[in-house]
Predict the structure of Methylase.
Amino acid sequence: MQRAQRIRAMTSAKPVGNVTRGTTNPNRLRRVDRWLAGPQAWRLKTSPRPLVVDLGYGASPATAVELFQRLVTVQPALRLTGIEIEPERVRQAQEFSTEQLNFMLGGFEIPTPEKPVLIRAFNVLRQYEERDVTAIWHSVSNRLAPQGLLVDGTCDEIGRRASWVSVQADGPISLTISQRFGSYQLPSEVAERLPKALIHRNLAGERIHEFLQTLDQHWLEASALASFGDRQRWQACCQALKNDGWPVLDGPSRWRLGELTVAWHAVAPRE
């Protein structure tokens, strides 16, 4: 299919997308959920009864249910809709439906009656071509409520290593990486779980490559702190990156969780 045809398909009124493998595990998405319930919690306060969408929740609705349980502690009145393009997955998820949690058939067109304030799409875009990502972002983010956010991310099978791009209606704004302490020797190992927009760009001359190499350099330079634990070492690494002038968008309260968020322009693919 030609690129123009793909983009037209993405913006059609019909369910759009491909059926994913559906692989999922309970607690797999805890890292991004923690971020949504933390720095992004203010978005849930922009509406009395905000809508959240879990796009492509997979063969089991477990992670959609977990997302609801985590966010409802921040905004008790929120509603969450899990969207899947595979009808049988939607049918099986109905037993988990409540007044505030429901499941429906759909894809990138986000066929909810109203616009959501948050859309989480994890391990969904990895099966698409890199050249399709921008069109998908545009299609999905156009369905966001004012001040809404799309989170496009990837993680490993048990959630120890994750990264995600935050996208607003006017485009991507940041990249977050989050890894469990003790699960890596170098921070750049997160490269295997970069979102689709970046995973093929970890090459010399690309911004994401420079970012990861600089992160590794500061991690190695902070080796003297290893005896105090990886958390202390990681916080020193992040602070050094910020001191270098990288546009780091968070601080120690997030770093201590194994996270780091930088502005998108610092890691965006070169044309």
About this structure: The CA atoms of residues 147 and 239 lie 29 Å apart.
